[in-house]
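dude i think i finally got it to work??
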Amino acid sequence: MPENRVLTDEAASSTPTTPRLRVRVRRARAPRCTASVAIGIVAGLGIFSVTGGSGLVAGSASRATAEDSSAVTVTAKSQDDDVANAPFPDLSVTVSQTRALESQGIVISWTGGKASTVPSQQIGGANFLQIFQCWGDDEKDPSGPDRTTCQYGIGGVPGSHRDDVRESDASVAEEDKAYTVPSEGFASPTYTSIPFRGVNGKEVASVKDGKYNYTVGEDGKKSLPDMNTNEFFSKYTTNMVSWAGSGGDGSGSVKFEVQTAMQSQALGCGTPVTAADGTVSGSSCWLVIVPRGTKDSGSSFITQSGLFWDAWKHRIAVKLDFKPIGTRCPIGASERQLAGSELIARAVSSWQPAVCNAPGGSVYSAITSAESDAALAANGVAPAPLALTSRALNPELGTDRLRYAPIGITGAAVSFAIDRNPRPGDPSVPADVQGRAGLPFTSLKLTPRLMAKLLTNSYLDSLPTFADRRHLSHAGPGGPNDRIENPRTLTYDPDFLEINDPEWKYQALAAASLADVLIPQGRSDVAWAMWQYVLNDKSARDFLEGTPDPWGMTVNPWSATTDAVNASGSALSLPREDFPKADPVEQAGTDSSGPVNLVTWRPYVKDFDAGAYDTLRGDGLILGDWNPTSTPPKYGKADRNLPGRQSVLALTDTASAARYQVVTAALQNPAGQFVEATPEAMTAAAAAMTPDPQQPQVYGFDPSSVDAQRATGAYPLTLPVYAAVNPRMSDADLRASYASFIRFVSTTGQQSGTSIGQLPQGYVPLPDGWRERAKAAAEDIKNGTVPTTPAPAASGTGSSGIPFPTGSIVGSAPAAAAAPAAGAAAPAGATDPAASGAASAALAGATTPDDPDMGAITWALPGSVLGGLACALAVPLLGRLRRRL
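look at this
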């Protein structure tokens, strides 16, 4: 089934966006009466076209001015006027990025704190930080924001409310009295509530001028506004971090979700501001850190709001500068389309504003769809979107007539947010491990066999709790009453514990969100690459075929790859372009609730970006309670876990992981090493890529190749992205536009950085040899040149006959290999030229004469893409609304 994506106002309201370009899309589930085909349109990607195939003159209406690094360190001593009485007088906080911000994640780290205590249902914890975002004009108040402008308040979390009952009138600071209603006896205690003022001038307040600010409903009843769930924010939309803990040495770090006006209209961060000289910038905002000690004024514990003066006066504020939201491409320009890979979307969103205002600029609509569908559509001679793909066209679909130009090197990754939860009261848990309760794990190793377990719902808690889960166990050696049951989650699996830090074995981590990974629905090249990665490992293949692992765990029989073991009698076919949830298990409903199947229990996410975003927010998409009052009645979603309690695993792409600054797992590569998705490791993987035997224009990381098995420093899920066009496409002007696009993005667009037109984090700049290949492909596409397809090259033997200029696939700059994991060994006798950046093969051969005219080729764009094009033309440049859940 193709990816189902549609951009609507409703979708935009619940989807993180790329503020400037509106690149993010969401998956929508199509009606049952259709073939579940719906389309995702990304509106407003303005690239460029050049009449007659002339060169590009880049320009932009505005340019973000930001250095590659805009990290800032601030201290309590530099900002706190009462630092002598501060909870942490020596506190020093570093914010990883403060300029050129968009909807993304940043890392906040610190030293000088004190060992933290995790929160409970009664108290907010002890010795921790609270972090949140506020709006405000720094020119009017350079010391920081007013507390009434801060997105602070999470209902049900002690010490994190915007309003609270006070111990007594005497516990109220003078600065809080304007927001306080004094006690009028036992039945009417002292109450303080800090109002919130949105950047649009609207206000929510339960106290005004020292009196309750009641509203009267239609029924005549009086009520106070909810200060923690209101029209501006709620626990589902806020980015507030209510608890960020320190280790025993007083240091710590936490990921923080930066929100723009697209996610929080009340903050308005990034709203375009035009200066007198015509330059456009985004409205700035503030990041505020409030240190919390062990007690509040009038209380023996942390139970009061961090906005109350006794806590607020110790705040630290850091100004945040944003890219301006929205595209500024010419209105009425001609439209072009890109279609296919989500992997390159972040790069395209950066490239577009740098070029769309060039003379003759066009507006591009990017359709995120299955790469195989996009390649098939582009393979005909009728005008079609430029295909973005990581694999060659499936030869079973017809003769491949595409010209492939490399435009990006990126990858897939497994992101995680897992906070420590040592077994309480267990004397076998070391004291130092207990002292790190609530702090996040920052490293995790996965093998192909562990990935096979996660992707096949083979852990017990991956299935509904009250469903029949006996098929995830098998008879043991002790007879019929001896059953070997699969582990509950990844973190209880001896297979996992054997290769990871010993600290994992002391944890009580039993969330269902650790029994599998969040995966997107639909087809993708990432899915194909992941299955290839799994199948290349013999132990993973054996597991999928039904052989128990060394500790007795077996594959979910509905996902077994042999007929004899598969519960359906028909083997699961792998590799494939999707991640099926094959188990039909169902938890029966009751008189008051409906049944729960596997997709209800562990839902798909809409795309790879969403997986990273959910990881940032600690949202494992856990099934919530049955809601009989909804129409129709249905299960809700449980609240996301706040820092200190997070347990999430997700499959994402490296660009989205970098965008949200989430931690990713180290994967065991074909050489036996555990390698993270660093630029060096992806460059080493590119050096080890070999040509597709069926289409030698297309290189990929083949885990079964000799080159891959020798590349000890290579990250195994590194993927190239190609722009693919049939040079015999009938529209010469469109081919020329595509050729200009390819030339720009494969040269100027390969400079890494955060400014407009640069390559975002999560991508590796194309080596020189790859750029030469792209240049040659662009010329063929522009000129309509169709080189003779050479005989397939054997893996590892080079690509003689490919119509590309002579040159190394990786260029002249050596690529440093990632450090191998301790104790891992390469195959006996293996050398590792690829890990050090040496070319796995030379690209040689001159351009050959054109093929004879191919004649008319039937061109049929799959229904999903056709629908997307219609939506793109009908609904260009849709605005984004505030994120809702």
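The longest helix spans residues 768-783.
im so relieved honestly
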